[in-house]
Amino acid sequence: MPPLTSTLLLIVAAAAAGWIDAVIGGGGLILIPVLMSVTGLPAASVLATNKVAAVTGTASAAVTLVRRVGMPKMTLAFAAAAFAASAGGAMAVSLISDSIVRPAIIILLLAVGTFVALRPQFGAAGGERVETGRRKALALVAAAVIGLYDGIFGPGTGMFLIMAFTAIFAQSFLESSAMAKVVNTATNLGALTVFIIGGYVVWPLAITLALANVAGAQLGARTVLKGGSRLVRYALLALVVVLSTKLLFDEFS
Known about the structure:
By secondary structure, the protein is an all-alpha fold. The protein has one domain (4-252). It is built from nine helices and no strands. The two termini are 32 Å apart. The chain crosses the membrane at residues 75-94, 100-118, 138-169, 189-211, 231-249. Pfam families: TauE. It is found in: Cell membrane. Belongs to the 4-toluene sulfonate uptake permease (TSUP) (TC 2.A.102) family. Its main location: membrane.
């Protein structure tokens, strides 16, 4: 374990990351850099330890949201596909260069942000959810593709899941958020399984951060329920800006 002051900083970062993950996703943008700067752990151990915190926090937020919003039965099938794809992505991560992934994600993020900004009715509460066999199949593919992305790269997974489920099923951001938390839990578990087998997790630190992450995630889940689809929309747009800025900085620095 790091010194007390460093541990306290990590706990605060983990709680903040849990809140952000519960609201929209992207908590790793806070916790991973702090882990890297404070602990001096190898990159694989940083990612593995972060995944322990992320999976517990996201799972707790998923339980809270599903209890209030509900969950279509097919969500578990989407989660299973995402789990397998994420594990495959984590195993293949060394084969894919960030120089290829990062520009593609920047373009996708900007497209998502532009679409949401120009379509204020997209993801708004109200309207009847559309669920057909073709849409379910498309959502299954989307969950697998996004799960693969989470295993390889990661930032914004929750946001991409919310966008995909909202677009495919013509439902509100709030309904999609509940589904996304369940599937995002599975993507985290898929990658974490690979990290555990590889022995990369620093367990004493991971458990401490997981407890803090759960506390933040519970607060975040309640924030989402109180703010509804409008809050998720604003959080999504904010995350697009933050992620795009970070990726552009990494690309050209």
